[in-house]
Amino acid sequence: MWAGNLVPPFPTRDALIEAVYHNEVERLAAAQRELSANLPPIEALRAWMMLFIDYIATKQIIASALNSVVGGPSRLYDSSRVQVSGAINALVKTAMKSGDIRKDLEPFDLLRALIGVSNVATGPDWQESARRLVDILITGSRPM
Q: How many angstroms separate the CA atoms of 2 and 126, rounded?
């Protein structure tokens, strides 16, 4: 029970769930900027993709709650798509300019591969497998 003039930080359960989800997306966007400023382009891309694996893990933890949000999870995912796409697009563009990755790479293809892992992320070792996939994707993205 909230006493006096204190107001609960989140007026509803949905508001709390949305805040957690949006916080994770904002962390991904901020990480892109920080990694780009502090690491060589290919290392920044790899590090961000590793963080994306963590994002997927967090999303799975709150998946049942996300599914119960009024308006459904699609509304939340749509609102975050621009931030996530913008982050990977910026990282890939910079890595292309540096010559670290192929010019014909589509940034969203890297995301699709990582998102695909989340669809089979049922075993206890899925995150380790996903991390290996990041290295495979990075290696396969290098110029021939």
A: 41
